[in-house]
Amino acid sequence: ELMESFTRVFVDSVSNSFYPVPQEAIGVGSAFEGWSPHGQEVVYRVLVPLNPPPGHAFHLELDSAGQMAARTFCVRVELVCTCKREQLGEKLLCFLHHSQEELRRKQKPSLLETLCTGSYLDVEKTSHWFYQLVRCSWLHLPQSYSWHLVFQPCSRSCQFQLTKGKKSLMVEMLFGVRQGDSDIFVVSQPTEAQKGGSSIFVSRQPAEADFIPSTAWPETYAVAEAKFFQHIARQVPCESLHLKCLQLFTCILRGTGFSSSTWKTVVMHVLTTVPLSQWRRREFARRLWDIMAYLHRCLQLKRLEHFVLGNKRLPAEISLPPAVRMVEPLNIFEHLARDPAAHREVMRAY
User: Fold this and answer.
1) Measured between alpha carbons, how far is 124 from 136 in angstroms, rounded to an integer?
2) Cα–Cα dist 186/189, whole Å
3) Angle at 240 between CA 38 and CA 28, to 5 degrees
4) 215-219, 291-295, 324-328: which has the minimum mean pLDDT?
5) 8: helix, strand or coil
């Protein structure tokens, strides 16, 4: 309800400008998938897709030398002709075919002049604009009469806490650009897996590797994963059993060196190998052993395949760009094959 209210106000706010157009928000991550570990503060993450404004087009350009492990893109902003729209009676001057003087006098600046660095959409400039949009929109929402909103500092997303009496909610609003009509996006904030999660077994990277240019947009598979969990929930006999398994591993075994993204990947793979008819409550212990056995095999082989990239077992309802569907499966445990000491350490932890 909150995000629907925000979206209505967002659309009105940008209607007479050339800022990106926010679309309906999509809930992603553990809170919306139903496996947030108990005892930890739940963060509700929502992804707000951004469409180009009139007279503009977005083009995604791969910016990571083809490295599938941490693909990042640049969003190139191109001005497109709107002369036909003006002929149809719309009050819209063409950025390409009207004089600069006329454009300055009669029309607001293009997106290239506001939120871009060069020809590319800038994450930090967009984040600052998005924060101002949320801040100004809040007072127009019915929820503002009963909830108190406090912003949290962040340069690549919009984070805030909502409180009402003893109730408290943490919200992180990410924004991104959809790849075609697929369920894959480029997004403002890197995901846990792209940052290495909380695993102590990830190969140590130089400090400069943590720096992300302001024009870099990491690829995210969070929407595709959320759709996978929705697909599973419609078919398993006990719709929460697999979530309880994931919740148990991420909560009880927290701090053992395996990140929540590793457990999530393993559980999703097991869901595609163990028949869904066998996910009944009385088989809870067996499914726990299946998950542990799958992880053990992956550790021995030093290979855990990414669940989305190159996975031929994904349900047909999850839409992927051809480049993502046809790529060779990515090995998340590749660093264990390169680092024998890390492999011995992770086997001891197992």
Assistant:
1) 18
2) 9
3) 65
4) 324-328
5) helix
The confidence score (pLDDT) of residue 202 equals 43
- Output the pLDDT for position 86: 61
The per-residue pLDDT for range 60-98, each reduced to its tens digit, is 998 865 455 568 999 999 999 988 766 555 678 888 888
- CA dihedral (272, 276, 281, 286) in degrees, to 10, reads -50
Q: Tokens 């869904």 identify what position? A: 276
Q: What are the sequence ranges of the domains in the chain?
A: 1-220, 235-349
In the structure encoding, which two tokens stand for residue 97, read together? 């075919």
Residues in the chain: 350
Determine the pLDDT at residue 231: 95
Question: Cα–Cα distance between 260 and 184 in angstroms, integer?
Answer: 21
Measure the CA–CA gap between 286 and 297, rounded to whole angstroms.
16
Question: Which residues lie below 8 Å from residue 326, measured CB to CB, with a gap of 6+?
Answer: 310
Supply 327's token pair.
């790529």
Fold of 1-220: Beta Polymerase; domain 2 (3.30.460)
Q: Are 161 and 169 in contact (CB under 8 A)?
A: yes
Q: Find residue 170's DSSP bridge partners.
A: 43, 161
Evaluate whether 28 touches 36 at the Cβ level (below 8 Å): no
The C-alpha atoms of residue 22 and residue 133 are separated, in whole angstroms, by 10
Model pLDDT for residues 155-211, shown as the tens digit of each residue: 899 999 999 999 999 999 999 999 999 999 999 987 654 554 445 344 433 333 457
Q: For 28-57, what is each residue's pLDDT tens digit?
A: 999 999 998 765 678 999 999 999 999 999
| Topology adopted by domain 235-349 | Poly(a)-polymerase, middle domain (1.10.1410)
Give me 111's structure tokens.
Answer: 């997106």
